[in-house]
Amino acid sequence: NSTLGTGGTAPAVKARCEMEVDRIEKQFDECVVFLLRILSFKLNVGHFPHLADLVTRINYNHYYMSDSGSFSAIPGSRPR
Question: Which residues contact 66 (CB under 8 A, 6 or more apart)?
């Protein structure tokens, strides 16, 4: 069994962990964009005005969606 403290395995473990974190981050961003699309549609229909605060909180500083309602590229693909 390899551990982080043994020889050359630490870089490989670190690389796998970073890849997994990147995958999770991308999947999270895709799910948030999907949720915002659904919520925005419901808001535009006009039946759920109370969702406006939720959309504002999720989309803080227009990270996922512009004022005009268009979605940016998947935010997880942006450089950190």
Answer: 72
DSSP per residue, the chain: ---TTSTTHHHHHHHHHHHHHHHHHHHHHHHHHHHHHHHHHHHHHTS-TTHHHHHHHHTGGGSSB-TTS-B-S-GGGS--
pTM strictly above 0.70: no
36: tokens are: 């915002």
pLDDT tens-place string over residues 39-57: 988 888 887 888 888 888 8
Separation in Å, CA 48 to CA 8, 21, 29: 55, 34, 24
Distance CA(23)–CA(77), nearest Å, equals 10
